[in-house]
Design brief:
This protein is of the alpha/beta class. It has helices at 40-55, 63-73, 80-101, 128-140, 184-201, 218-228, 246-254, 268-276, 292-305, 320-332, 346-351, 377-380, and strands spanning 3-11, 17-24, 29-33, 117-125, 146-150, 172-173, 179-182, 208-211, 235-237, 259-261, 282-283, 309-310, 339-340, 357-359, 362-364, 388-389, 392-395, 400-401. The protein is 36% helix and 18% strand. The longest helix has 22 residues, at 80-101. The relative contact order is 0.16. The structure holds 2-keto-3-deoxygluconate (KDG) and magnesium ion. Residues 37, 170, 211, 213, 263, 313, 315, 317, 340, 390 line the site of 2-keto-3-deoxygluconate.
Length: 403
């Protein structure tokens, strides 16, 4: 079953998405998400100029071999652009294989390890009281686990808050990134107050999560983790930038708050030390950024051996194609922990009709053959690419800070 076409579709139904469509000689096609938020066109070029020509005429059934052909064959290894492109090819090939065999993808990954996929929603507010109200709203929608982010007095819009309490979209249209303001001390004082208030309002049993979004040094993160211990979070995410992995050892020495990391990772080598030394509890790599289903399974297997669970990144910049792939992965891997879920806009859902569904705090990939997601190319063409960037962050004195 030879690949005869490799089409890169760029559209912006509410936000930018890059989708790879691989077509085989017998007409079966597969989709892969290749969206790299704020750097979309770099992946488009990599796919169009360097990957698509290599795929024409290749056997679509050889998924593992194609993965290594693109990874080893490039000589230049890893990196978000390359790995996003490889992910898209990989997922499209898994979609083709499952469709050809007439089974939902999770059946090819060992079958279901559970009945449903636990997800968490994003509650946020400009201040603590607004965030408490947003958590209540998410509970009413049936969510069984909720991430809580609050604005910090004096800082204006910061990561995780600012576009209405039920939704948050980080990328903003424009030719330059928006600049946000940061002050670590104000943040470190506010977050424990937020969770103290949330535990007062809601059950001790409600899994609550928080994302520090790479903005702390290891010792600041250790202070935050320790101050949150009475409120027993499900996880504290990205407590410190993960380039310096020794920092996680320091955090671990000081707190029992569970740690999640990995949304910016793109290979098992980024995770290896953190997993093997049991410095984290949840690995958050995404199918679209970490080499597709093929590579994500290797990461999950390593994690399983070290009692680390998965917690895939699932913000709105993961397209419905990635979301579907994540749900098949989540349903099948033994050491699944939780899946992030941010609802896409109605425009996005209309461009990407899909069979996955949410009900009462859980998600289901559905039983359609393959991924169970399609792309309406005619409609996609009505939403052309719009330049957009993730924000940048500056401390109060103007110094650049991690966002
Ligand atoms: O593209 C970057 C966003 O997806 C990221 O900032 C969202 O941190 C995020 C999260 O946990 O969803
Ligand atoms: Mg995050």
């Amino acid at each position: 079953m030879k690949i005869v076409d490799a089409k890169v579709i760029v559209c912006s139904p509410g936000r930018n998405f890059v989708t790879l469509k691989l077509v085989t000689e017998d007409g079966v096609y597969g989709l892969g998400d290749a969206t790299l938020n704020g750097r979309e066109l770099a992946v488009v070029s990599y796919l169009k100029d360097h990957v698509a020509p290599l795929l024409i005429g290749r056997d679509a059934a050889r998924i593992e071999d194609t993965w290594h052909y693109l990874y080893k064959g490039a000589y230049w290894r890893r990196g978000p652009v390359t790995m996003c492109a490889i992910s898209a090819v990989d997922v499209a090939l898994w979609d083709i294989k499952a469709k050809s065999l007439g089974v939902p993808l999770y059946q090819l990954l060992g079958g279901a390890s559970r009945d449903a996929v636990l997800v968490y929603g994003h509650a946020n507010g400009a201040n603590i009281e607004e965030t408490v109200a947003a958590v209540a709203d998410y509970q009413k929608l049936g969510y069984k686990a909720i991430r809580a982010q609050s604005g910090v007095p004096g800082l204006g819009k910061i990561y995780g808050v600012g576009r209405g309490k039920m939704q948050y979209e980080a990328a903003q249209e424009g030719s330059l990134p928006v600049e946000e303001t940061w002050n670590t001390e104000s943040y470190l004082n506010l977050v424990p107050q937020l969770f103290a208030r949330l535990r007062k309002e809601f059950s001790e049993e409600l899994p609550l999560l928080h994302d520090a979004h790479h903005r702390l040094t290891p010792i600041e993160a250790a202070r935050l983790g320790r101050s949150l211990e009475p409120y027993h979070l499900f996880w504290l995410e990205d407590p410190t930038p993960a380039e310096l992995q020794d920092g996680f050892r320091l955090i671990r020495q000081h707190t029992t708050t569970p740690i999640a990391v990995g949304e910016v990772f793109n290979s098992v080598y980024d995770c290896e030390r953190l997993i093997k030394e049991q410095l984290i509890d949840y690995i958050r790599t995404a199918v679209v950024h970490a080499g597709g289903i093929t590579h994500m399974r290797k990461i999950a297997s390593l994690a399983e051996m070290h009692q680390v669970r998965t917690g895939c990144h699932g913000a709105t910049d993961m397209s419905p194609v990635c979301m579907a792939a994540a749900l098949h992965f989540d349903l099948s891997v033994h050491n699944f922990g939780i899946q992030e879920y941010m609802v896409h806009s109605a425009e996005t859902d209309s461009v990407f009709p899909h069979k996955y569904s949410f009900s009462n705090g859980f998600m289901y990939p559905g039983d359609a053959p393959g991924l169970g997601v399609d792309i309406n190319e005619e409609l996609a063409a009505k939403f052309p690419y719009k330049q957009a960037y993730l924000p940048v962050n500056r401390a109060l004195d103007g110094t650049m800070h991690s966002w």
